[in-house]
Amino acid sequence: MNWFDANFLPWLIPLPPLIAFALIVLVLGRSRVLTHITAVGSAVISWFLSFAVVLRAFQVAELGKYSVGIFGSNVNDIFGISTGWLSNGGQSNAITGALNMGVAVDPLTAIMLFMVPLVIMLIIVFSIGYMYHDPRNARFFAYLCLFAAGMLTLVVADNLLMLFVGWEVMGLCSYLLIGFFYDAAPKSQVDRVAPFQAATKAFLTTRLADVIMMLGIAYLWASTGTLNFRDILFSQAALEQLASTPALGGFLGLSAAGFIGICLIIGTVGKSAQFPLHTWLPDAMKGPTPVSAMIHAAAMVSAGVYMIIRMYPVLAAGGNVHEGVLTAPMVFMAVIGSFTALFAATIAIAQNDIKKVLAYSTISQLGFMVAALGIGAYIPAFFHLITHAFFKGLLFLASGSVIHGMEHGHHVAHGHADHGHEAHAEHGHAEEHGHAAPAHAEHGHAEHGHGAHGHGSHAPTQWEHVFPDFNEGDFDPQDMRNMGGLIRTMPVTAVTFIIGGLALAGAPIITAGFWSKDEILAEAWYMMGKTPVGLLVLVSLALAATLTAIYTFRQIAMTFLGTPRTEAALYAQHYNKARGDGFAERSISITLTAPLIVLAVFALLFGFVGVNPSFPIVGPLMSSLGIEKPFVNYVKYSLLEIPEIPAFNLLPVLLSFAIFGVGVFAGWSLYVRRPVILGQADPVEGIVGKDTYRILQNKYYIDEFYARFFIQPFQWAAARYSEVVDRGLIDSVLHFVARTAGRIGDVVKEFNRVVIDGVGDGIPEAIGDAAKALRPLQTGRVQQYLLFALVAAIVVAVNLIIIAAVPQIIPVAALVQGGIVVLIVFLLGSGSASQPTGGSGNRPASEGDVQATSGD
Amino acid sequence: MTLDLLTLITFLPMIGAGVVVVLPRKQKNLARYTALGFSLVVLVLTIYLLSQFLGGTCPPGNVPEAMQKAAAGGPFGFTCQHVAEFFPQLNAKWHVGIDGLSMSLVLLSAILTPLAILISFEVTDRVHEHMALFLFLEMGVIGLFISLDLLIFFIFWEIGLVPMYFLINYWGGKDRQYASTKFFIYTMAGSLGLLLSIQLIGVVAGTFDIPTLLATFPKGLNGAGQALSLPFAGDLNLIKGLMFLAFFFAFAVKVPIWPFHTWLPDAHTEAPTAGSMLLAGILLKLGAYGFVRFVVPLFPAEAQTFAPVLAFLAVAGIILGGLAAWGMNDFKRLVAYSSVNHMGFVVLGVAAFASVYNNIFTQAIANAADREIVLRSVSMATNGAILQMFTHGLSSAGMFLLVGALYHKAHTRDLTQFGGLFNLAPFYGGLLIFTSMASLGLPGMAGFVSEFQVIAGTWWIFPAYVAAAMVGLFLTGAYILKGIRAVLYGPTNDVWRGHHLEIEFREVLALTPLLVLILITGLWPNWIVQVINQTVTRLFGS
User: Fold this and answer.
1) Where are the domains of chain A?
2) What is the ipTM, given to two decimal places?
3) What predicted TM-score, i.e. pTM, was given to this entire model?
4) Are B270 and B176 within 8 A, CB to CB?
5) A746-790 pLDDT, tens digit each
6) What gap in Å lies between CA B514 and CA A270, rounded to an integer?
7) Cβ–Cβ of A194/B189 closer than 8 Å?
8) Which of A319, A440, A502, B230 fits A472 for a cystine, CB–CB 3.0-4.6 Å?
């Protein structure tokens, strides 16, 4: 086998991080240096392998283009290889539905392989600096590597089941990483969610979606007999059959494809945090910041959108986009996506946590992609996925850099730089926290509004006990109200963050975000005339984009512009020679900023691969360089039916310009012209009113709603089920039978004693003697059962022989045995009837028991 | 008589039990290692058996031609058969053999027994008897899986009950008397009806030979190929229906199918760690084995009628088992209820099997396209049900091991007493997360494969029940995370500082094979699925 064959190479891509995970967990975890080398090394190898595959893939001009050759072989097909994984039934796969596992590189995968390993590698490099002082460093890198392995598996998979494996492994990793500070209490009285609660919430919310997605996968398998992408998505017959079969007898009014599609989309709604399952994602910010970048940019949430892009032919089966006929799953996507985009943007505007703004921004941007896919904008959705990964990864890492700087600044400001970084504020381990406490307490209160909060009654007393310095947590290095003017102390971070922000806001021409967002709006514009859904998407996305520009400028202004609002912001820096920082801080600073610069380059330039040649000025310029929509032309062969791209139209472009203009103006006049002052109400509050603002700040109280109407009832039922049904209902029936039997048993015993003993039968006497002999042991019951079991066995054996000898006697024998059954059950039952509380079980077993029971 | 491998594997543990019991009383370690040694030899022989089975190199056996002819066309395709005289008056023979179904379960038993013995090294009270009981139990279950004679089957069925009763009753927790009694009576009550039915089958069919019965009885023929007739006046179909119910009840208690499950949480909670491992790992499978081997193939028509009820009970078990587990604050009880939840998937797969088998048997599906989908679905579901027995055996044994390891050191299982132990016992924490995820059915681990098979396979047959089962799958996540969160996460409970809670080497040693198998089965399930599928394919005659 040629190991460097492009068909085989994709198999190897997820392996290095997986091996690194195992190595770090099992062997290397004790050494920080080796951990770092292994983690970064594995990411580099994966990136290198991906790069090799991508290079090969880009050389094939029409990779994935499906055409049947003379002998039925596929020409220009894809890279990939698969192997038997789960056998089922007889020989032929098509009929028996046996499952294979394999890898495939088509244009979609190739582009993902361009983006994912690169971003992952940068995140891991960033993490070295960010997590340097954390005592659980090794565990962090191990999880991160597993996360990377999961994502890469998902990307190279050639079938839905393997994709699902990667999907869920990432779910686990996000659970572990969000709950990384698992022993920390809630950070402040305002934000009452502890990391471990956020982790559980994330896992369960996505699992709710995943089990529904699994139904979709099951249905797809049941009707097609395979889960291989190529076999389903490139088979006209299979798609037509899915689109024409009514699902489940048709009572839902859906075709099989529609039902499967909606199940899969629900999976994405969970994973990509779309309304109504978006609530986990903002809480997921409890994890260390590189994790947020991993979840939000490179991996998890993108995976959700990637999956529906991948499965698009099934979602669209039975519809005709260009005649405005949308299938049920597409309408579902369009509605969910556009609503989420707008809804999340309104929340983002009222958040003060630097990461939470970005979190809601992610939800909103993913809404863009989902909505775009809903109106058939297949390529723009994918384009936006890639550009978003770059600029959102950049924004998260830059915000991590800011937080790191703020923590640093906080420590400097409070005069215990000599403690070094061992007392990291965010990395709240009880042990380290202890000695940093007194110095913090005084400032934590004076600085911002919620000093008055004591240990509220809602914080379990347990935490107070563990964290004597609970109030210290009130300094929040992530709160933008504590920042301001950071551009002076952290120029690299500030500039790169602003680049990312501009891309997010869609700054025309110069940023990647503009090009991809513009494509989506252009398609929405095109669809507007064909279906009302198009109009809905256009209007909500336009509004959402405007809000995006506003909150982005708000964020930039509050963080980097103006004057520092706290001492921590004044001293916010990774490295300052003047205050005695040495080589370690310098290196940390480099690992924190270098990835930002790389990502900033992509956030600026990547958009040019998607420029329409008809675009004024830029289009011809790019064409003259030989770059004519390479992205679109390359990706379109991922589909069997090559998507029709609407002709260039200047109006949506002008709309994009206008949106950005309005957003910039609003952001500038609200936040830049008059910088925010600590303690003062946010300008938006003045516009929308205090009450509305509070609703926005509390995210429309959706968490509270879920807790009240879903989680609590379930918990209530769970806490009582076993007591009420199992013990109360089922067991009490059993005990009743046993007790009744016990009474009857007493009567029977009496009958035995009077009648049978009176007759002088030897056997009952023997039984009685045995029982008498055993009575001193005071267990009674054990021996009783054994005795009955023995009697039963003897009787049964005798019966068998009788039956063998005289088969005619069987009705009589059956009757006799029936009686014996009843008798034994009753007699045994009488033993248990006196026993249900089990109080007497503490007796140490004596030697006699063993002799009596083991039969020697 | 030549020594037959299957017979040897069956009785070697019993010889071992005999040896262990007569060892000098004071030599506790000798007893322990002897027992371990015997169980390891059984494991080696079982692996050898597996290699023979996979390679198709089983010795042809000495099955008389008449018996072969009588059993022709049977659903399972047994190999490595061996026949010897046992009870000629009753026409009962010592007839053993294996197929994919029993092979996988024998393998599971042979793997779990040494691990359980290793774990029970921690027992210091009456070591000899304790160890002997484990070997005795191993003999019972292996004998049960390989026996091809109903009478022999029943004897082993009863044998399997006795050691577990004593393990719970003598080495159990504080409510052990109640728990063991409930366990014993419940199973006993179930098996008496089974005995009656077996006798009746013996009388009407004239043979206890399982391959013969499977080939003839469902067609309404007796062992000699004539129409069945009752030796007394009565409605044959009614009697068959009653027999079906008796079989059903006996196995339903053992699985346990909701609502016959209430013995299980009590028995598990009170059993010693190793006892729980084997109870969940192997003994529950006896019931499921009975369903696949007897209930459906012997009574296809009755099973088909009953299949929707079975599916309903399965889903009830999945959902309510999950709900109950979520509500538990006793860690071991939580894991015990998880068995009700997981075994529900086995039953769901069996229900799919039951609802279709009769049609395949009677060739009732005419439409070729339908037939294709139904066949691949039902074989997926049946494969899944059998694989789920295997994978649940691995993960539940692992979970009980870990719960026991914690209880052994902390002397409490109350989840509200723990918290933040990840700091104090990082290795234990890592292993607990791993095993919990296996139990949760995380893709990439064994449990996922089988659950997916059952879901995918049953979907076409019972879509509404499968959709409802998804609620249970969600609850699985809820209770698994509750366990992890309560033990490992949250602020460290200061009570445990200074306590030794970290897992011991011996426990790691016993856990590792389980984890390795979970991972291998999750990543490449075909190693065991091809064993199972071989039989399932034959079952559906494709």
Assistant:
1) 9-411+478-697, 722-838+846-854
2) 0.93
3) 0.86
4) yes
5) 777 776 666 655 555 555 555 555 555 444 444 445 555 555 666
6) 32
7) no
8) A440
